[in-house]
Amino acid sequence: MQRHFRLLSTPLTRDFHPSQAKNGKIRTLGRANSRLLALISRVPPSPICNYGITAMRRDYHNWYSPRLGRNMELLAYGQAGHPVLVFPTSQGRFFEFENNGMIHELAGKIESGQLQVFCVDSVDSESWYNRWIHPHDRVARHNTYESYIIHEVAPLMKNLSGASQITTAGCSFGAFHALNFALKHPDLANSCIALSGSFDLRQFMNGYYDNDFYFNNPVDYIPNMSDPWFLDRYRYMKIILAAGNHDICLGENFRMAEILGKREIPHWLDVWTGGEKHDWPLWRRMAVKFF
User: Fold this and answer.
1) CB of 104 within 8 A of CB of 97?
2) Where are the alpha helices (DSSP H) in the chain?
3) Which of 38, 35, 13 lies closest to 25, judged by CA?
4) Are residues 37 and 29 in contact, defined by beta-carbon separation less than 8 angstroms?
5) Rounded mean pLDDT of 225-242?
6) Residue 40 has pLDDT above 90, yes or no
7) How much of the chain is helix, strand and coil, in % rounded to 5?
8) Which residue of 65, 88, 133, 227 has the lowest C-beta tally within 10 Å?
9) Residue 213 phi/psi, 5° resolution?
């Protein structure tokens, strides 16, 4: 298999256009000639921050993405610690992780400098869930979103945290994003926390199938993975798959775990008993354990 996935992160440089911004202020890091990282405005807790978060640092970022052709928002929590990239649930927003109590559960680790959490927005409604465009174009839009994460979000995370690699995380459809990104880019991510995920996206393709989709469907490309560049890095990754015993995605987690096992890729499948269902109360308890 060719090294189709190897897209190394690079700092945001000339293709970032701060002139497109209308609000906020520009932050640069390091020496006077350091590269422009992001458009950032500090905002206090607001109606989208309603879970009792007061002490921790909370930064709201908003910049025009030249790759996606529109402004993208994210929230960053903490000022030190290992960086965690959180993908939202299906068609979710950058603030849902906070609104559903996940940041509250992680507050101790964030405030103590163990974690920095970066919650990004999604473009699922423009990609996988966009029934008005051809399935090939849905995958293409997803790939553009992935490029945005690689070339715009990841450099921001690494510059603010000083870390060389990140953890990806997500719940439900966000778990697909987290695992798929980590498996495709083990040079960027060395661990993944996938909570109640489903990892086969054929249902979004209306029977259409091509190479671009293949390389975004983990249940297809992992069984055929033979490139030692990837396999060697997978051996050192920390992959967590977790689901409740009444979770609608439980079977998909068993399936993904079996696929990883056959390829001798280390992973941890954790099934929560007691009638646990696919929802935020379960994921809040999981966050305490796994993050």
Assistant:
1) no
2) 96-99, 102-111, 135-148, 154-161, 173-184, 211-214, 218-221, 228-234, 250-262, 280-290
3) 38
4) yes
5) 97
6) no
7) 35, 20, 45
8) 133
9) -70, -45
Give residue 104's pLDDT. Answer: 96
What tokens were used for 126? 């423009």
Q: What is the pTM of this model?
A: 0.83
Provide the β-strand partners of residue 240: 193, 268
Domains defined for the chain, CATH in brackets: 42-290 (3.40.50.1820)
Continuous segment of H or E residues that includes residue 170: strand 166-171
Which residue is listed with tokens 């055929």?
224
- Using an 8 Å Cβ cutoff, are 78 and 56 in contact? yes
DSSP string, 19-44: GG--SSEEEE-SSTTPPEEEEEE---
- CA distances in angstroms from 5 to 112, 174, 186, listed in the order given: 35, 20, 9
CB 127 within 8 A of CB 142: yes
